[in-house]
Amino acid sequence: MNQIARREFLKNSATLLAAGLFFPPTIASLARPVRHLGVQLYSVRGDMAKDPRGSLETIAQMGFKEVEAYGYSEGKMFGMSVPEFSNILKSNGLSMPSSHCNFTLSDYDTSKNDLSDRAKKAIDAAVEMGQQYIIFPWLKEEERPQTRSIVQLVNAAAEYAQKAGIRFGYHNHDFEFTSKGPDGRLLIEWLLHEIDPKMLSFEMDLYWVCHAQHNPLDWFRLYPGRWELCHCKDLANTPTRETIEVGDGVIDFPAIFNQSAQAGLKYYIIELEHYRSTPLDGIQRARQGFLDLRW
């Protein structure tokens, strides 16, 4: 660099620095690490049922780069084949690190110690779509007391997923933090204790943990590194304590996210179950609320 060019560079750098606009890339990257931010498509389930292509296009236009799907059934996602759905995501610049897929106790054959073909196909489809995780999102109410059978099912699914090259995960609601097994342990403790951590990840739904009057930070401390994904929806300060957009409720997200390293959190996923406007408006507001957080 010649002397004139060097003087001009230093002059411009000083001006930018004085205005607070000059940040060396290495410092900026350390101050604000890359965070995976996605949206659970269940939040806009009505829109996805009517127009999945248009809904995904709108979601991409909002600035989302990742989605988490649900509803895989018999080789199809939202009525489309796996390759077709994958192509729509790709054409909109979207990736899908995880998806939700329902499993039931009937998916595990105790006599054969094996998963059902239906469950295996769902896991194989997740691998085909290039996912890092397949998430078990919901236990039927009548199955919840059968703690040991639940552990057998999750263990078998996690083993199959590991062999297929994908992580198996479990997503909580509030009942895992209130329902107890035969030895007095909470259902979430059974899953944390009885299944090899190398095979099972957890997607903590922060709203439902707080709804059950537990503190996510306590679980981060007790089981560090186990919570690789989370659902981000706020808890409204109302008598019904419904879901609300991030930043508009009572959950202290900065305090929680400041402990992301301890938790093992990598993926942050916006979700809504209740709406003050339209579902699409809601997830856009929730995304901005997340981005406005200081942590």
Please provide a written account of the structure.
The chain has 13 helices and 14 strands. A hairpin with a 2-residue loop joins strand 3 and strand 4 (80-81). The radius of gyration is 22 Å and the shape is globular. It has one domain (38-292): TIM Barrel (Alpha-Beta Barrel). The two termini are 39 Å apart. It is 42% helix and 18% strand. The longest helix is centred in the middle third of the chain and has 18 residues, at 147-164. The strands form four sheets. It has an eight-stranded parallel barrel with strand order 1-2-5-8-9-10-11-14. A two-stranded antiparallel ribbon has the order 3-4. The chain has helices at 3-18, 25-31, 45-50, 52-62, 82-91, 117-128, 147-164, 187-194, 206-211, 216-222, 253-257, 260-263, 279-292, and strands spanning 36-40, 66-69, 76-77, 80-81, 95-100, 108-109, 114-115, 133-136, 167-171, 200-205, 227-232, 234-235, 243-244, 267-270. The chain is of the alpha/beta class.
